[in-house]
Design a protein that fits this description.
The structure holds two protein chains of two kinds. Chain A has one domain: MetI-like fold (Orthogonal Bundle). Chain A has helices at residues 8-34, 51-58, 61-91, 96-110, 113-123, 130-137, 152-177, 181-189, 194-205, 207-222, 226-232, 243-253, 257-287, and strands at 37-38, 46-47. The mean pLDDT of chain A is 91. A two-stranded antiparallel ribbon of chain A has the order 1-2. Chain A starts with 7 loop residues before the first helix and ends with a helix. Chain A is 74% helix and 1% strand. Chain B contains 19 helices and 16 strands. In chain B, the strands form six sheets. A five-stranded mixed beta sheet of chain B has the order 4-3-5-15-6. In chain B, β1 and β2 form a beta hairpin. The model of chain B is unreliable at 1-23 and 35-44 (pLDDT under 50). Classes of the chains: A mainly alpha, B alpha/beta. The interface between A and B is medium-sized, with 30 and 35 residues.
């Protein structure tokens, strides 16, 4: 379809482009500029060049933060994606009970992050929490999920998986609707087992859905803030200080706007690279 | 004050911002802050009363008592009005205050922790208070006011007045201590023995800790003092207590890791403090260290007698002071400043000081209030209320250091957690912290 006037497509794009320019590119430009200064909001900023980046790399803090966030994201993406797919396959059938289960699973996703964090704070308390009391009653010695640096990150990842699995489930359910029943029936008539049908037909056809779920879960898990803020405040011993929380802490708690801006730029770059890599992998897979 | 469609922007701030680029970062921030301020404050006085905005950072009971004082002031002063707005905990409130100071929409009055007052004062964003009418008659307890809260505080222009001042104190579960026949520990060794004796286990799992204390800079500073050191020397050198700092940190490690008699509560900052309170109230900790700020809250909510006690000694008794000081950020109009100053005088009147102190647990900040409480026999019937005040005899003033806040939050606090929770070497961590503080100071 050809536009009536050559500039029409650009005119249509203008509102989005303006929004992106004002709320995305301009703040990013400001962050990049501020990252070259030492500034605490109150006293005049001084130009320090790339020293924030050098310091973040040299101290190992950037890699530590990025590594921790990546570990968290991988657990969340795999956990939420895997659980979402399993639940979607299990619940992709008619009937009242599956419908109830679908609603129940998705309900966690619509609850606010703060409410979820408060709920799990109660569940995971080392002494009074429901989980540890149950495990202790069963004769086990459960850890202090939120107070032990070895466990806290996994505990937060578990809470995040619980929260967003409903989202992945709904998307996979939609993806399953697009799998032609005739193909599955034909395969069944040819003697393909349910597992073979899933591996050879359903799973490949869910490719675009999987790509979407993975990318959105990845971005969501990289941006997680509320559960950290409410449940651990980045502790114990910074074991749950993820990228966004670190930025918040630097700018609002430690009075270091320049350093926080350097983290913003590094975070943006890392997220861009990861998303590009993921899209490339999925495009290669689709081409095969 | 100029009113712009409901947005209250100080005239001086308008004059300053008008000459800047139309889309400067400050202007954007100003607009955003003004919008949020308008949403938060919301009300515009139509009765001509001079209005001062007050940003406060208390929740729970302390918030209720403060709002009572504000309501009383507003009801009794026909020319003035205080618009009090809650801003989260101390650190959240401070973050908002700094942002507002940058955007030049700071409140007329706020209260901030002592560690940050030198930084704000040296940044030139606080009004001097000593020239204001009646400032010399406030009769502040010197250890709680600027004069002795900071080393050399009396030689500087007055920028801070005490409000909710505290010291760390010990809270004991009276029932548990009575059953065990134990008294409040007077030394670190007694603390260790008491904590061990009161820790209960069931099938290897701790069901009650003998002791709990947030792994927080404030309590560590107290222990450094008790071990005979100082975190920052009077000449400004960041020593972190030297050997005393290591001893203090290793003592915590002993209680947590070797004895298993102390619970380091999960969470950081005030979340950990709240968790400590909850553990105490639920009987999961027999003894805790926390601020005197929670005295009334704990007394009211405990199902057992709460006994307050002074912190123990190692080589000497010592505590830092805590809580917050009133400050007036620069940039407010004259009527706003007048309203804020009238409110400060009001809350420093004996009646209000006593009401605030006896309703919360914070120390009375004027000498007249202390004298009246003593004369009325209040301390005889409420001995817990007296503990923090008596500790002022061994209170350590803070250095007037602009780096104090950064040393606390960025350098020391994470290393305290590393030492206690990850069992890292206390000496090496503090050595590293000292080098960091000196190199980037």
């Amino acid at each position: 379809m050809n536009p009536t006037r050559p500039f029409h497509p650009y005119l249509m794009l203008l509102p989005t482009a303006l929004l992106l320019a004002v709320f995305f590119f301009y703040p990013l430009f400001v962050a990049a500029k501020t990252s070259l200064t030492r500034w605490d909001l109150l006293t005049p900023a001084s130009y320090v060049g790339l020293s924030h980046y050098a310091e973040l790399v040299h101290s190992g803090e950037l890699f530590e933060l990025f590594g921790r966030t990546l570990v968290f994201s991988v657990i969340v993406v795999l956990g939420a994606g895997g659980a979402g797919l399993a639940l979607a396959v299990a619940l992709d059938r008619p009937g009242r009970f599956p419908a109830f289960c679908r609603s129940a699973v998705f309900s966690a996703y619509v609850v606010s992050w703060v409410s979820v964090a408060l709920l799990w704070l109660w569940v995971l308390d080392a002494q009074a929490g429901v989980l540890n009391r149950t495990l202790a009653a069963a004769g086990l010695h459960p850890p202090d999920w939120l107070g032990d640096p070895r466990w806290a990150l996994f505990a937060l990842a578990g809470v995040t998986i619980w929260k967003i699995t409903g989202y992945a489930t709904v998307l996979f359910l939609a993806g399953l609707q697009d799998v032609p029943p005739s193909v599955l029936e034909a395969a069944a008539l040819d003697g393909a087992s349910p597992m073979a049908r899933f591996r050879r037909i359903t799973w490949p056809l869910l490719g675009p859905t999987t790509a979407f779920v993975t990318i959105t879960s990845l971005i969501l898990s990289f941006q997680v803030f509320d559960v950290v803020r409410v449940m651990t405040q980045g502790g114990p011993v910074r074991s749950t200080t993820l990228m966004v929380y670190a930025i918040y802490e630097e700018v609002f708690m430690n009075l270091r706007v320049g350093r926080a801006s350097a983290l913003v730029v590094a975070f943006f770059t890392a997220l861009m690279l990861l998303t590009s890599l993921e899209l490339w992998i999925f495009s290669k897979r689709r081409a095969l | 004050m100029i009113r712009d469609g409901g947005l209250r922007i100080p005239a001086a701030a308008r004059a300053r911002t008008d000459v800047r680029a139309p889309w400067s970062r400050r202007r954007l921030l100003t607009a955003a802050a003004a919008c949020s301020g308008a949403l938060a404050c919301g009300r515009e006085r139509r009765d001509g009363r001079a209005t001062a905005s007050l940003w406060f950072t208390y929740g729970g009971r302390n918030r209720e008592v403060l709002l009572e004082l504000v309501a009383k002031f507003n009801a009794s002063k026909p020319r003035y009005f205080i618009d009090a707005v809650y801003q989260g905990d101390y650190f959240e409130g401070l973050a908002k205050l700094r942002t507002a100071l940058y955007a030049r929409v700071a409140p007329t009055l706020s209260h901030v922790i002592g560690e940050v007052v030198p930084y704000l004062a040296e940044a030139g964003v606080l009004e001097a208070l000593d020239g204001l009418p009646g400032a010399e008659t406030l009769d502040v307890v010197p250890e709680l006011g600027q004069a002795r809260s900071w080393i050399g505080g009396d030689e500087r222009p007055l920028v801070a007045l005490p409000f909710n001042r505290s010291t760390p104190i010990a809270y004991l579960n009276g029932d548990i201590f009575a059953r065990a026949g134990l008294a409040a520990p007077q030394s670190w060794s007694e603390l260790r023995e008491t904590a061990r004796a009161l820790t209960q286990r069931n099938a290897g799992r701790v069901t009650r800790y003998g002791f709990s204390c947030p792994i927080s800079w404030w309590f560590w500073v107290a222990m450094v003092g008790q071990a005979g050191g100082a975190v920052i020397e009077p000449d400004g050198e960041v020593s972190l207590g030297g050997e005393a700092g290591v001893e203090a940190l290793e003592f915590w490690q002993t209680l947590v890791s070797r004895d298993g008699s102390m619970r380091p509560p999960p969470g950081r900052d005030y979340n950990a403090w709240e968790q400590t309170n909850q553990d105490f109230l639920a009987g999961r900790a027999a003894m805790i260290w926390t601020s005197t700020a929670f005295l009334k809250y704990l007394e009211d909510n405990a199902r057992f007698p709460v006994v307050a006690a002074a912190l123990p000694r190692e080589r000497r008794f010592a505590v830092p002071t805590g809580g917050t000081h009133w400050v007036m950020p620069r940039g407010a109009s004259a009527p706003e400043r007048a309203a804020a100053w009238e409110f400060l005088r009001f809350v420093h009147a004996t009646e209000q000081v006593i009401h605030w102190s006896t309703s919360t647990g914070y120390m009375p900040v004027t000498r007249q209030a202390v004298q009246r409480l003593e004369a009325s026999g209040y301390y005889r019937t409420h001995p817990n209320d007296r503990v923090a005040y008596d500790q002022l005899e061994v209170a350590m003033p803070w250095p007037w250091s602009t780096e104090l806040f950064r040393v606390q939050r960025e350098i020391v606090q994470p290393r305290l957690e590393s030492a206690v929770l990850s069992r890292e070497n206390a000496r090496a961590l503090l050595h590293e912290a000292r080098l960091l503080a000196r190199s980037s100071g």
